[in-house]
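Feature request disguised as a bug report, sorry. It would help if multi-protein outputs had a clear separator. Right now it looks like this:
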Amino acid sequence: MAAVLNSNVASLWASKNLQGAQSKMADSVERLSSGLRINRASDDAAGLGITNALTQQINGANQGVRNLNDGISMVQTAEGAIAAAQEMAQRILTLATQGANDILGSTERNAIRAEMRQLMVAIDGIGGRTKFSGNSLLNQTLAGTTAITLQASNNTTDTITLAAGAFRNIGVGFLTHTGTNAGSILTNSTYGIADGAAAGTNAVTDATSGQASTLINKINVTADGSLNAASFTAILTAADQYISRLSTQRSLLGAYQGQIEFTVGNTTELSSNLSAARSNVQDTDYASETASLTKGQILQQAATAMLAQANQMPNVILSLLK
């Protein structure tokens, strides 16, 4: 190399290497301090795209788990309400069995029917007050088909559909009184096929009725003065059918809860695996990065020392000029 004064090539190279060492050290310090290997797109453009795609899946799965847990709470709320109604229906069944006994008189049977009606009022009240997040849970008519859909992840097709049959109205429903004797089906004995009235005089349209519509009609069907064992046998049959329908409804809700719980487990595992995959791409490997930092520190010190030496090299020219 020629001995020149205007361009200290050795100093330029030493300066360049010092800048490179300092840049790598800055990258290592940033990664070690943030815990992330990718802090900006220039660190790893492809890796950043993979990380964002994985983050989308993870966020969707995590929210899906929360959605499904809300769904479990909703199903449990509905099932608990049906269980309470079923317990009261069992009492109606017991009372109907008692009323079917021929040794009872009309006073006793009227008292039994009065208790049955109050139990039906309570059952209807359960259906009305059973709500979740302000939404009525047991309001599906017998002809209703509105299902409830739970979103399990950010995939629009990843859903669990709960059929309308699981959320049938457990009360008397929406019965239409078309006869001459107006009144409440629950509180007025002259509603339905009423006391002393011929069939059809006070007709009821029950195409959109609740699960208990048949039972309340049987309770109201006979005139007070002609209550007999046959009346209570009909109530007994209707109560037995009503309890069976509630059992079917509860079983469906229980099956849905099991399905949702398994889906929660699977979605939670999916989120964990995706998080591990994202960590491999995005997070800092501290063992590797601390080794790079140590290497950078040594290179910086060496480059600084060599730059000092290179800056002294033009002094040789002075000795030539003496």
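(second protein starts here, but nothing in the output says so)
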Amino acid sequence: MSSTAGSTWDPLQYNRFADERELPFWDLRRLLEPVSSPRVVDLGCGDGRLTAALHRDLEAERTLGIDLSPAMLAGAAAHAGGTLNFLSGDIAAWTGSGCDVVFSNAALQWVPDHRGVLARWRASLAEGGQLAVQVPANADHLSHAVLRELAAERMGTAAPADPVAANVLRPEEYAELLDALGFARQHVRLQVYAHRFPSAADVVEWMKGTSLNRFKLVLEPDEYAGLLEEYRQRLLRALGNRRPYLYPFKRILLWGRLAGERGPEGARA
């Protein structure tokens, strides 16, 4: 998570939709090519549950999870130990070296300047290293559009920006960027996840776990409660308060691999 909303994350609220949020994580993992005992960094690791699963699935030599949310890192501590560790840090500024895999699921959207950030992440890779990133791309959905409109009415220019609308690039721009950064091979795609909820009201609960967090940093509790209630009313009117409700959620998945291969005993070929 970034400094934008790192202190307001509620792991319980976020994980109300754990099954839905986990789908793109494993789709992203499937883009990774096999590497023997890779050195892995998970940027925006959240509560560490999926980081631990990734560590086991890749049979990693070591894995480091980075996040800025104290609440999320408190949960991650239960998974730490041995060759799996977690640290507090801002993924926007993170740099490393010798990584075989830099992995980031649903976190990069919180920080600006994706070109600069991805360049730093690329520089952290070893020869033959892989970059795998997933970001939401649904800023045009009513769940986001209604919130932006309401925030502008209530807060004017003081309203915090929608991170997806402000920061996420078009898929083709990520493809161009991966090429410019020297990735020998790449895969970039836009994917729609069809989340089936009991009612449209569940979309509000989804947003409470993510995009609404940024308002908790700048509003008093009663102001936030008022914004949340009006958002609920407006969104349900816009969505028709349907039961059940299909929430089509667009995401961008991108993967790139540098040239070169890992040699014996971890040496570089």
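Even a blank line would do. Unrelated, but nice: DSSP finds eleven helices and seven strands in the chain.
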